[in-house]
């Protein structure tokens, strides 16, 4: 993993936008570059919804973590590809949400990220202050290597239930490999674990805006995985989904306090679901 991190850092291109940094910029975070901020402005010119959609995604992640920690008794989280959002206020970061919701003082959170800037910043600003959070350089597109990482193997106890939040499905543009990733995670996690999934879709995009958005993504984020509801359902086949099932992210256990995209859930542009791993 260290060699891969060095390679990625050497190849870090601040002039090209990346999806996790775009969402960070849209949510008011600091882990992004001018190219990402420009992309937010371009999207807002086509459809002024990206900033609100980014907030809806952050709120979904927080609600999932709170639910699993408070109601399902989960004491271990592996959050893959969240971008470790920097737009969240102190005390409201994802690991803070988990620890505040849990009755366990030993709750652990492992972030797995492929963006070298995100990894470096988070390791410098989070890890020094707690022994119960780790930030790991890993890529869901290299799932076997990611799961073999020594920190992943030792920081989390794989004999006990783990909640895996897969937030980086946008990078799984090969359908066969996407299904393999879900299968691999299902077989790795012990009984009683959970798998949460976030996935971008065009299902809610107005017909008149779709060509412009497709063209923009083709030029700027050509490998971004976009799937229909039926295709996302296929990824979750044979898993026991918690109520309310696969829904627009604002519809998953909504909190009426500042619910982004609450009036028009499809404007979030993302489906979300949480499944119990048998």
UniProtKB/TrEMBL annotation:
Cited InterPro entries: SAM-dependent_MTases_sf, SAM_dep_MeTrfase_SAV2177_type
Please state the span of the N-terminal signal peptide per the UniProt entry.
none
Where are the annotated coiled coils located? Answer: none
What UniProt keywords apply to this chain's record, in alphabetical order? Methyltransferase, Transferase
Q: Which Gene3D superfamilies match?
A: Vaccinia Virus protein VP39
In this record, what's one Pfam family?
Methyltransf_19
Q: Name one GO molecular function term.
A: methyltransferase activity
Asked if Nucleotidyltransferase is a keyword of the record, the answer is no
Gene Ontology biological process terms from the UniProt entry: methylation
The cross-references to SUPFAM superfamilies, in alphabetical order and at most eight, read: S-adenosyl-L-methionine-dependent methyltransferases
Official protein name in the record: S-adenosyl methyltransferase
What is the scientific name of the source organism?
Answer: Nonomuraea jiangxiensis
Q: What is the lineage of its organism?
A: Bacteria, Bacillati, Actinomycetota, Actinomycetes, Streptosporangiales
């Amino acid at each position: 993993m260290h060699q891969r991190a060095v390679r990625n850092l050497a190849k870090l291109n601040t002039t090209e936008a990346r999806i996790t940094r775009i969402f960070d910029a849209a949510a008011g975070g600091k882990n992004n570059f001018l190219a990402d901020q420009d992309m937010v402005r371009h999207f807002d010119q086509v459809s002024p919804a990206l900033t609100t959609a980014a907030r809806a995604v952050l709120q979904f992640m927080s609600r999932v973590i709170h639910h699993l920690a408070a109601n399902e008794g989960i004491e271990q989280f592996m959050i893959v590809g969240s971008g470790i959002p920097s737009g969240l206020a102190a005390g409201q970061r994802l690991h803070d949400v988990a620890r505040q919701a849990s009755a366990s003082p030993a709750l652990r959170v492992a972030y797995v990220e492929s963006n070298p800037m995100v990894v470096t910043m988070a390791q410098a600003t989070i890890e020094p202050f707690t022994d119960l959070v780790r930030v790991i350089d890993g890529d869901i597109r290299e799932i076997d290597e990611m799961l073999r990482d020594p920190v992943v193997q030792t920081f989390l106890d794989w004999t006990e239930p783990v909640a895996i939040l897969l937030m980086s499905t946008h990078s799984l543009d090969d359908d066969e490999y996407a299904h393999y990733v879900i299968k691999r995670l299902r077989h790795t996690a012990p009984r009683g674990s959970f798998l949460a999934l976030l996935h971008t879709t065009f299902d809610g995009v107005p017909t008149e805006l779709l060509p412009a958005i497709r063209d923009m993504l083709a030029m700027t984020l050509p490998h971004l995985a976009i799937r229909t509801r039926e295709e996302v359902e296929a990824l979750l086949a044979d898993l026991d989904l918690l109520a309310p099932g696969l829904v627009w992210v604002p519809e998953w256990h909504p909190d009426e306090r500042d619910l982004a995209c609450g009036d028009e859930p499809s404007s979030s542009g993302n489906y979300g679901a949480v499944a119990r791993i048998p």
